[in-house]
Request: fold
Amino acid sequence: MNAFDELAGNFSRLPGIGKKSAIRMVNWLLKQDASYVQKFAQNLGSLQEKIKPCSICGVWTETDPCPICSDSMRDKSQICVVEQSQDVSTFEAYGEYKGLYHVLGGLIKPLEGIGPSQLSIQSLLNRIKNGGISEIILATNPTVEGDTTALYLNKVINELGLPEIPKVTRLATGIPVGGDLEYVDKRTLSLSFRGRSSM
Reply:
């Protein structure tokens, strides 16, 4: 396998990139200025070294804690629980939510061998135990796995036995069932957030 095929193979492993798109990308890179390609390679090579999950919420960040957790203007009584770090970017883009986040790192998927212990659930429970949280917003995708994870989280949060259990809410169903938060328009996301319901 030559360098061209190897790089095309690497690109084709990216989400949403097929073999033809990968080949187009490699051809495009070959036509670019050498300094751009070198900078691109440096950025890619240092990506995992520079960007790590926030030790508090789990969002990808260069600083720890992340800018959201460090922001004194955020509402620290609310935690919005999401599946992946990119979901935080989706919420931040629409700009109405001013609370904190917690990234699970996936969803409960028994058929794939992913249970609660593989997710960042214990650290969420620890944050709740530390107090000061009045609402947990479950913003998992409206899929079977997302609903299963939300029901499980609601159960374990209510079983904490705290004097003041935070209210657990779920985003309204303006988001299509089986949809993905990453592709929801801002207006629908905003309405879903406002219309969230108690679990």
Notes: Residues 34-50 form the longest helix (17 residues). Residues 50 and 62 are 6 Å apart (CA to CA). The helical segments are 3-12, 19-30, 34-50, 67-70, 85-94, 122-129, 144-158, 186-194. The beta strands are 52-53, 60-61, 75-82, 99-103, 135-138, 167-170, 197-198.
